[in-house]
Amino acid sequence: MTDAAEPAPRPRHRPVVADEPGDIEPASVTPGPIAVVPTAEPPLVAAVQREGGTVAPLSASTRGIVWTAASGADSLGRLLHDHPHVSWVQLPWAGVDAFADLLASARDDGRVWTSAKGAYAQPVAEHALMLALSLARVLPRRVAAHTWEADEVGRTLYGAEVVIVGAGGIAVEVLRLLEPFGVHATVVRRRAMPVAGASRTVTVAELGSVLASAEVLFVAAALTRGSRGLIGRAELERMPRGALLVNVARGGLVDSEALLDALETGRIGGAGLDVTDPEPLPDGHPLWTAPNCIVTPHVADTHAMTVPLYAERIARNTRAFLGDGRFEGRIDLAAGY
């Protein structure tokens, strides 16, 4: 997460906690020493300690683990195998696809698993709105221009038909940021449970039908085995000609080749991608120069933003681990996120 030697600065954002899945078993943990691994970073250690938690090296008495690396599922799996009495594991990112195999094997382990989902929603949603507005006003072409082109090209987000795939903290915050624009928003999620700010909520089975009227599509879902390639050639062809796509979740949710074809033929009016497949996007990849396409290198939530937000998530979950309150960001092991 960080090489900082000082406590994390005060967050300028707050977490956005969406409704938790209703079928997760109630939390049952055994409080005890917490190991912050593989690197005991000072801001994260301080977050545990200020809530009354004890930070100690891994031992037979360890009962909680705060994981600080974006990867290393195999190492974490071995660590848990060697320390079977650990009852709570905290992962550092909202997306846990890098730990998919480990989470699948942990479905019956009795542990409480938490992630950072919702913790980074505000900066990511801010980035998503920036991408959508930039595409609507054709900024990729405008910023590259060296001659005056008063061509009257551009569109507005006011009153737009918007589809958001996903219903987590990012989706909730995108909806809040879009309120002043008076959009008509449809949320696509696993279950058709209502989401505040959305005109309607539908299941993934209805994705194709709602895309037919989508002027702007925001992709903000978790990447799982079932959602990989969710936005493919057929889905892009269902969208109105010239529609815009913004992906701030995971690159694997969108078929890159199909998206490139849609951009080059004008089937899609623009794409804003903070995540790509492959990632990092190689030099010379055609998405770099595709029409009205913006690629940012997975920086919607920067280091300066994530460290204090992760520290806050750790603090709140340490409190829950010690019996005061509820865990935030519970991972549904059956769903994989």
TrEMBL record:
Renumbered residue ranges of the record's region Disordered: 1-30
Organism per entry: Agromyces ramosus
Keywords: NAD, Oxidoreductase
Domain D-isomer specific 2-hydroxyacid dehydrogenase NAD-binding: 131-300
Identification of the protein by name: Phosphoglycerate dehydrogenase-like enzyme
One Pfam family here: 2-Hacid_dh_C
Database matches in InterPro entries: D-isomer_2-hydroxyacid_DH (IPR050223), D-isomer_DH_CS (IPR029753), D-isomer_DH_NAD-bd (IPR006140), NAD(P)-bd_dom_sf (IPR036291)
CDD domains attached to this UniProt entry: 2-Hacid_dh_2
Record bears the keyword NAD: yes
